[in-house]
Each structure stands twice: as structure tokens, then as C-alpha cells.
Amino acid sequence: MSPSKADVLSQPSAPDLDILGDQVTIHPGGYVQPTVREDAPERNLVEHMARFRESPLDFLREISLYVSGTGWRAYEDVIGQPIYYAGFSDNMKAMIMRTPMLQQRILALTNKRLDVEEKAGLFSHAQYQAKAKSIRRSEIVSSLQEVALGLTDGMICKMESNRFIRFAYYSATQLLTRAYHQGIHVSSEEVLRLRSVAETAAKNKHSIIFLPCHRSHVDYVSLQLICYRLGIALPTVVAGDNLKIPVLGSFLQHAGAMWIRRSFANDALYTTLVQSYMDTLLQNGFNVECFIEGGRSRTGKLLSPKFGILSFFMDSVLSGRVEDAIICPVSTQYDKVVETESYISELLGQPKPQENLKDFLSASSVLSLKLGR
Q1: 177-208: b or e for each residue (b if 16 or more CB lie within 10 Å)?
Q2: What is the dihedral of CA 113, 114, 120, 121, to 10 degrees?
Q3: What residues have CB less than 8 Å from 171, skipping those under 6 apart?
Q4: Burial level of 134, CB count in 10 A (0-12/13-18/19+)?
Q5: How far apart are CA 137 and CA 252, in angstroms?
């Protein structure tokens, strides 16, 4: 005999997280009721979510909660600076382009180019030299500003739509809870401390710089999910442009990723542009996330730090352009990482394959594995 609609709706649901004062409370809010010890030092932040085949009514109810933005899912009153609103990207680009550092770099590159052209005899007529140089100066400045604006548009994260991040959170949680069937566990004590630090940082308009260890591509996804679930402003994730692949690259960029080149190759304009972006983020109190190991550890051990992107943050603070920032180390542990098979191949000497959409889609089979937590 199939259960009635009233019986289905009255079934206990998955525990949800409620943080009030100095207490972390788990209460019904999903669809499966697991056993939770009140004195447990760790809590499962992301529980199993409803599957359509198993429980269509609960699945549709869950979808409606995210679409309507019910409760914490709305992600509106976040702890931190305003993000995910229409015009966010345009405001960010305008702030970057107005930075004195970038304007000075454009002027210096313009003067350098004019000197080269003058030595080449392009301004030979003395009576027209001043006017010709003025016109040429305007052309070079305009050209460099156009290049800088194009580079900025391709680099910055584009936190434009609140509806999009609700969809991204739901989709990512569905995928992760398929692979990591025991959920994402966090320390209750550390969660409370992070919330307290985030509130203080928001009040003082200081940024939190998250520095996670890097063992898997799941690292930045899990940290974004945790910040979303705790109501903390999502960090801008510093990511290599090797992940800027069709479809996935745009999705990640709108979910909080910014792209930087793996090598700057003495490109003065690009280096200044990255520094200007870091200054803008820190000056306005936006959270940032970067991996100081540079790449993922294939052995599970911590790699020696690479201070490339961290040097930009240090320069912002030590130069006085940024008042202060908060460093937050993050340790992410796995029962098993999803890239285990590819890591074994690379450790045996096979070259690392370049990221592409085809391999990403073909790797979806790992979602059916039971990888623990």
C-alpha cells in the first residue's frame, strides 16, 4: 500500500543547521532524519538531498525552496560586503580602471612608446611635433585602456545574479552528496569562530583571505558551499586560466572564480592589472580565496608554498593601500579524492592532460562512487 500524501509530508526530514549566538543547532529541514549526537564536535553541514526517483514530492519541495529563496537559501543578508546583484561586474571594472596604480602604469607605458616612436623619427617636423605627440598620446592611452578593460572583463569574477548562485549551490550540493555520500563535516567550534571573525571583518570592512590546502578540485567548491550555508559572503577564488574552458569556465566565473595566467611573462600591464584587482577587493572588504601551494598535491602531502599571488596581497597591505586583512588557513580532508585514478597515472610518469569539457563530462561517473565524506 502506497503512503498517503499526508504521510509523505509528515515524514522527518534531513537536519538543517541553525546558528544562534554560541550554539550550533540541528533541526529538520531536508528529507532524511539521521542520528545526531548533541555533544558531537563535528556536524554534517550538507546532508543527503532528495532524489526524484526515490522521493519525487520531497525533491519538488526542495526545488521550490531554492527557487523561492526560503530562509537561508535566499542568500540576501550575508555577512560581508554586498555581492550577487545586477551591475556588480560593471562596478568592479570601473573601480579597477580608476585605481591610481593602473592609471600611472598606462601613462608610463604611453611615454615609453612615444620615446620609441620619437627615436624612430616619426615626429620629425618640429613645428608639428607637439601636436602630433599629443594626438598620438591620446591614441595610445585609449588603446591601452581598451586592452586593460578587455583583460579585466576576462579576469574578474562576475557575481551578478542571486538566482544563479542559489541554482549553483543546489546543483553543486546534489553532485557532491552523490560522490561524498556521508556529507561535508565541519567543526562546530571552528564554524562559530569563523562566523564571529566574519562579523568583525564586515564591521571593519576588512577582507578574509582564505588559504586552503589543495588536494582536489572539490576544495574550492566545498569552501564555497560552506560559506553559502553559513551566510558568509562568498570569496573570490583565484584560479588558473587552464580551467577557463567553454561552459564550465563561464559557470565558475559567475560562481566566484577569477582567472589569472599561469605565467605573467614580464607583462607590465597585466601584472599591474592583477595588483589593482587585488587592491580593489581588499580595499572594499571582499573575501578572497587562493591556494598558496600553486597546484593540487598528488600525494596528499602539503606542497611547498608559492608566494606569487600571496605577494600581491602582501604588497597591498605593506604599501599602505589596504589597511588590514584577515588570514584564514583552511584544512580540507577527504576519505578519498575524486581524482585518485588520474593522480596515480601522473605519479607513474604520464603527462597531466589539459583540462577540457569532454574529460569533465566523462569524469561524471565518479559521482556514483561512495567516497565517504
Answers
A1: bbbbeebbbbebeebbebbebbeebbeeebbb
A2: 170
A3: none
A4: exposed
A5: 38
Predicted confidence (pLDDT) per residue in 182-227, tens digit:
777 888 788 888 989 999 999 999 999 999 888 777 787 888 888 8
Place of cell 582536489: 216
Tell me what pLDDT residue 339 has. 67
Between 291 and 288, residue with greater pLDDT: 288
DSSP codes joined into one string, 266-329: T-HHHHHHHHHHHHHHHHTT--EE--TTSS--SSSSPPPP--HHHHHHHHHHHTTSS--EEEEE
Q: Please state at what angle helix 248-255 crosses helix 162-179, rounded to 10 degrees.
A: 110
* Cα separation, 197 vs 116, whole angstroms: 52
Burial profile 291-330: b = 16 or more Cβ within 10 angstroms, e = fewer: bbbbebbbeeeebeeeebbbebbeebeeeebbeebeebeb
Task: With CA atoms as reference, report the closest residue to 71 among 23, 36, 30, 13.
Answer: 30
Question: pTM of whole model > 0.85?
Answer: no
**H helix intervals, the chain:** 5-9, 56-68, 88-97, 100-119, 126-155, 162-179, 188-204, 218-230, 248-255, 268-283, 308-318, 340-347, 357-362
Residue 298 has pLDDT above 90, yes or no: no
